[in-house]
Design goal:
The complex is a heterotrimer.
Chain A (H helix, E strand, L loop, with lengths): L3 H20 L9 H13 L5 H9 L1 H22 L14 H23 L8 H18 L7 H26 L21 H25 L7
Helix pairs in contact in A: 3-4, 4-8, 5-6, 6-8, 7-8
Chain B lengths: L1 H25 L3 H21 L22 H32 L4 H16 L33
Helix pairs in contact in B: 1-2, 2-3
Chain C lengths: L1 H22 L3 H21 L3 H25 L16
Helix pairs in contact in C: 1-2, 2-3
The chains are: A mainly alpha, B mainly alpha, C mainly alpha.
């Protein structure tokens, strides 16, 4: 292991290097060639009111596909590493009344909020990833309240697989019709309406369901892993 | 005021990166290494978003056709991806830590490294490497034999 | 300008929590400090006119990240509220 002085010197030197680099950047008045181009054209070409969504799904859609694959690989590797519980360990008792009642009340609220965030991703801040995280929380909190009743891992895996396939299928359909992978299709509609911006809401719905199912599966595996005996 | 804001933001982002990197290099407990990695990622994301800020900018969302100067949306899209990947990496690191705890019973990196090398050597059938601080041989060592420093002329061919 | 003082306050809070996360002996407190860092960064994102990124950081970094760390705490046997063993930290 590196000794302490060397490590602190390295970290300090790195920070100094970064500071010198950013001191040369014009803070507050950047010359953004790509940014200006996107801001001028995004409303007409893509038709989504949220310009960050139009970059994430239309201009850089393949980066989102890469992000989905990284999440998939991480969740799969995490599930593989954790493995099956040893079995024979006595299941944890159900939690107290407050947690059970709260979980029962929160479950429909979280599902509604999650779907709202996913479906309005192209109009307001939000989108597939944020809504997917809220959906995953909606499925994990009842497991915390009643540790014995776990949603079936097969159902979660099926939802995740179908959602991921739908994302890629939409991209391939764009390849077939428009000769570009993941180009937005289906016309743009009126700017600011719920049904607008072509295939962007469909793509975000697929992303949201995939991320939600994936993270729910991973978190439930965490709750099932063997806990060491308390000291 | 303008300089104060810009210096404070840059100091915050670079400071978080510094603390995170120092934590990853110096901590012996696996859990603290994972925490430090998360802190470093937060600092890096903040630094990315800072490059797109405009003083007179608004959020990059079009409402009612009003479209003033907007901040740069490209770094924000990149940081969206980066945050989600960061939590994926954190989940994988924690899964590894849980398995390490189940396999070795401790979370101290120094002890785990020593034991892991010993286990790998034992599995491969290789003898553990001799330590550089302790000379090889049984204890107590035999007394050294007196030998001349320069060989005499008769020994040379 | 009040925005400058809010930014300075958030930055100081974030840096103090980051140091606390690496120094505290109680691991539950260290996880809470990491969530404070994430929330501070999220507030700074709102002040930097990036609402999408702020929502993502609050939901994923503070919410899901903190949840994941707390779940792992229990599986790692670190959930005790008293001081841990000597397998501590640096500095």
């Amino acid at each position: 292991m590196l000794n302490r002085t060397g490590s602190l010197l390295f970290a300090g030197g790195f920070a100094f290097l970064l500071f010198v680099l950013v001191a040369g950047l014009p803070f507050g008045d950047p010359s953004m060639p790509v940014g200006h181009h996107v801001l001028d054209e995004a409303a007409d070409v893509v038709g989504a009111a949220n310009i960050v969504t139009s970059i994430v799904l239309a201009y850089r859609g393949i980066d989102t596909l890469g992000e989905l694959s990284i999440l998939f690989a991480a969740a799969m590797a995490g599930g593989l590493i954790l493995g099956h519980p040893a079995g024979g360990a006595k299941p944890a008792p159900p939690a107290g009344f407050i947690l059970r009642a709260g979980a029962d009340l929160l479950f429909p609220l979280l599902i509604v909020v999650g779907l709202y965030i996913i479906l309005h991703g192209h109009l307001t801040p939000g989108g597939g990833f944020q809504g997917g995280v809220v959906l995953a929380a909606a499925f994990v909190i009842p497991v915390l309240a009643r540790p014995g009743q776990v949603p079936s891992h097969t159902a979660l895996a099926v939802v995740e697989g179908l959602a991921g396939a739908a994302f890629i299928a939409t991209g391939l359909a764009a390849l077939y019709y428009d000769r570009e992978f993941l180009a937005p299709l289906l016309g743009q509609g009126r700017l600011g309406a719920l049904v607008s911006a072509g295939t962007l809401p469909i793509l975000y719905l697929a992303v949201g369901l995939k991320v939600g199912a994936e993270l729910a599966g991973l978190l439930i595996r965490f709750t099932e892993a063997d806990a060491p005996p308390p000291r | 005021m303008i300089e104060l804001t810009s210096y404070a933001l840059y100091a915050g982002a670079i400071g978080l990166l510094l603390i995170g990197i120092a934590g990853v290099l110096l901590c012996h407990h696996i859990f603290r290494v994972v925490l430090a990695l998360g802190i470093a990622e937060a600092g890096a994301n903040l630094l990315l978003v800072l490059t797109g800020f405009r003083w007179d900018g608004t959020a990059p969302i079009i409402e009612n056709g009003i479209q003033g100067h907007m901040v740069d949306p490209v770094p924000q899209a990149l940081v969206l991806t980066s945050i989600v990947i960061g939590v994926g990496v954190q989940a994988l690191a924690l899964a590894l830590a849980v398995r390490l705890r189940q396999a070795y019973g401790t979370l101290d990196l120094r002890e785990i490294r020593v034991r892991m090398e010993r286990d790998l050597d034992a599995q491969a059938g290789v003898a553990p490497p001799a330590s550089q601080e302790e000379p090889a041989g049984g204890r107590p060592l035999p007394p050294p034999v007196a030998r001349p420093l320069i060989a005499s002329r008769e020994a040379r061919p | 300008m009040t925005m400058a003082w809010i930014i300075v306050l958030m930055v100081v809070l974030m840096l103090a929590s980051a140091v606390a996360a690496l120094v505290l002996r109680n691991f539950l407190g260290a996880v809470a400090a990491t969530s404070v860092v994430s929330l501070g960064v999220s507030v700074l994102f709102v002040l930097l006119r990036a609402p999408d990124v702020a929502l993502t950081e609050a939901a994923v970094g503070a919410g899901l990240g903190g949840f994941l760390l707390a779940l792992a705490l229990q599986r790692l046997g670190l959930w005790r509220l008293e001081v841990q063993e000597a397998a501590g930290d640096a500095e």
